[in-house]
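Bumping with the actual sequence this time:
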Amino acid sequence: MNKELKRVSFVVLAMFVALFISSSYITTIQADALRADGRNYRSLLASYSAQRGPILVGGQPVAQSVPVDDVYEFQRTYPQPELYAPVAGYYTLGQGSRGVEDAMNQQLTGNANSQFFDSINSLLTGQDPEGATVNLTLDPVVQQAAYDALGDNSGSVVAMDPATGKILAMVSKPSYDPNPLASHDPASVKSSYDALVADPSDPLQNRAIQGDLYAPGSTFKLVTVAAALESGDYTPDSEFPNPATLQLPGSTFSINNAEGGSCGGGETATIATALRLSCNIPMAQLGQALGTDAMADQAAAFGFGDDSIDIPQAVTPSRFPIERDGEPIDDATLMLQSFGQGSDRVTPLQMAMVSSAIANGGTLMDPTLIESVLNPDLSPVEDFSPSEYGKPVSTATAQTMTDMMVQDVADGAASGARIAGVDVAGKTGTAENGPGDPYTLWFTGFAPAADPEVAISVVVENGGGLGQSAFGNSVASPIAKKVLEAVLNK
């Protein structure tokens, strides 16, 4: 009898232990995930009955909650909608959320684990629940300058502080007005959302960090040159044969330099000349000589292929493919990819990260949009401090590349970014997309070259409305110049 009682007691004890462990796991480890689950309708309704914290840029709200006379008590509003929508995003009744509104939802609603004791205090004191304030790193002057400079073009501008990784501007066009999505009428919200989804210009996509990505064109030559210098086998004066046309090995396809003819007119062309004049053929030969592994390793060091980059919005990984259909790429494919064609695909943020690492002496900082998170009483919720992503190039390589990029702007293919009295380092790109398709136009760089305050990346879709008649230097460089000037003139 005692043996049977012991068995029953053991089973009951085991059940209590299992219940204790599972309930503890649900209420602690899974708490944030369960609150954030879109199927948790009670959590959604509760978030509307609390005053959701504001999102600030330069101390001014770009998203805030205002009292309304309905069951939800508060409604989200966006004072400068199209300027900040791709970053701030939206928070809807029934159609999910996007941008910082989504990524920082727990803090904005006051439900993050780090805000637990503040929530308990509000409950005990009878205060109305209120979410935290999220301060963004964006500079309102630089953001407006980037938005205005991009004009009616489709594309993106990203500007960063290379020393900290703070994102000073992130513009994506076309943009949209998130205010209709904040309505408390579910039918109206769905109608507005469906219209945005159906829009062929895809305004909901933040082109700076997401989407189908872009062929980088000649901006990728920075990665190729970095790989060459880091190998120790090449210097800016290393020379390559300089034909006007080059047939790719094992292929009937031939490549040319963007301007036609040879690179600089001599029998050979140096790496420095190829970068300054943005020549394709020497870069293709350099990529072939370096090999797939060296090129792939250098791209990865800059962040290519990394699906963990979070600003805190998730960033679509940029691609430097090292295989095709599961097989290692051949020399012809590698040569195309070495000057930013083929299957290379990047985000504007990725190319800003490349320039930022060079500007910062070879050290790449983690990019971020978050300056701080504060409780309603202004006490800190979470501490965000600059963190290092990695060191993709040595200090010596960074300095050498800076010198080469300065020449590119002063007397080369990026001359449209010149600023009087300031040494600007830069690289343009004019990416081909397909027979008859408009080019994708690029600029990436930083200024001042000797003591960088800002690194930038500009991409313009559809050839800036000029099809295949425009180049990165004629369209993207002037846009970058205006943004750089906005930073330098502050």
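The tokens above came from a reply further down the thread. The chain has 17 helices and 21 strands.
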